[in-house]
Amino acid sequence: MRRALARAVVAAARAPAPASSSSSSSSRARASTFARATVDASSRARAARAALDASARARFASSSSTLPEHVVLPMPALSPTMERGGIARWHRAIGDEIKAGDAIADVETDKATMAMEATDDGYLAAILVPEGATDVEVGTPVCVMCEEASAVAAFKDYKATETVTTEPAKSAVETAVTMPVVRASTRATARMSARASGERVFASPLARRLAEERGVRLETVSGSGPNGRVIAEDVLTARASSASEAVTHTVVAEHPLSKFFPDFEDVSVSAIKRVTAERLTESKQQLPHFYLTVDVRLDNMMGIRETLNKQLADDKAAEGAKISVNDFIVKASAKALLAVPDVNASWLGDKIRKYKKADISVAVQTERGLMVPIVRSACCLGLKSISAEVKSLAGRARSGSLTPQDMTGGTFTISNLGMFGVKNFAAIVNPPQAAILAVGGARKEVVKNAEGGYEEVLVMSATLSCDHRVVDGAVGAQWLQSFKCYLEDPMTMLL
């Protein structure tokens, strides 16, 4: 049904315009119509790329009459904020039979590595994006599927020669698909003409960097990305096409003094690290940060923790559950957010949004980069439930099995480096949140007690980083005092 609809839309798009009484006016009208259609198609393409998500994966039907019936699968948008992705691994090889629901490839999004699943039965006819490729725009064709095994051979030299975009679904039962078809020859001619006149060459940031490193002139590279955009693979292909040039420029100095530095290894940046870097840079540059630090005594809390863990050890139903110091920190933070709701908020430009529950984001370091899964409604959970949820989220973060839903949202973040021996540090606010808590390790200090003597106590430093647009200094101090009271006397969290 969907393929028939796609073919009908393409046929309608290609249908010739009806003849008019005046050939000259008809030509001008068709030219004007084509220009408007081109602009509208471009606008729809931009809107479609922004609106694609995991619940609206697109399938495209090819209009080629020289090839067997097939569909071109694009890079899917597997998270609400995904604009580019990478192919971490292909699960199937060309010629393999695929059933609906089978994982075709692992796609590296801006949040996690997720499976790209087939929506129909068929055979994998061509792989258009190699394994390990990064910075692939959403909507870029990545593979081809056909219906018959005997048709696979026809796609041996297949290359994507058409730009196809989709509009977002308009209802739960109806999806409007728009396929503006632009022939490769027409697009190439226009592109070369524009370059000959000295206009800008459209290329991805990675393609520009690779071209500069390898001495490749972008204006001489034929782009295979959307609308003729030059992507990294085009630069690498152009670079490999000249053997002499490859030998001459095997190593390109990135700095005039590079020869004085020791040997080095360049490590490619994953999508997760790239997006994290972009957002933290934006946060540090645009958000007015300020920092507040308090020392929290942990003796009472450690005693209660020891008692609770003994009870859990004796409880067969607990299955080895154990409460950590971080679980107390999550619970105390959530309670403090309810006590001082001005911190549990987001800056929305013309208004400040205050949340009625505390969803705590917990920073987890993984091989893929920093992941921040969310403990939903932590203010309503007990320590045992928080402990189980944090362990589950951390395990899935390290195995790369988190979903975008596990990391989308959150009203407050906790970053705990105490286990690494860090005394204290200041974290960067994660927008649109208004604050983040940086927790250091516990240490022993000698302090003067109420009787005038001295005693050794266990102390932990906690630093609250605040967005001054939302949180004033006094409000941040009130939150820290509330957090300190809850953690120093955990029994008050039961009230």
Descriptive account of the structure:
Residues 1-64, 162-198 and 242-253 have low confidence and may be disordered. By secondary structure, the protein is of the alpha+beta class. The strands form five sheets. It has a six-stranded mixed beta sheet, with helices on one face. Strands 1-2-9-7-4 form a five-stranded antiparallel beta sheet. The chain has a four-stranded antiparallel beta sheet with strand order 6-5-3-8, with no helix packed on it. It is 33% helix and 20% strand. α9 crosses α10. The chain has three domains: 2-182, OB fold (Dihydrolipoamide Acetyltransferase, E2P); 185-268, Dihydrolipoamide Transferase; 272-494, Chloramphenicol acetyltransferase-like domain (Chloramphenicol Acetyltransferase). A hairpin with a 4-residue loop joins β5 (103-108) and β6.
Keywords, separated by commas or semicolons:
Chloramphenicol Acetyltransferase, single chain, 33% helix, OB fold (Dihydrolipoamide Acetyltransferase, E2P), 5-stranded antiparallel β-sheet, 12 helices, 495 residues, 6-stranded mixed β-sheet
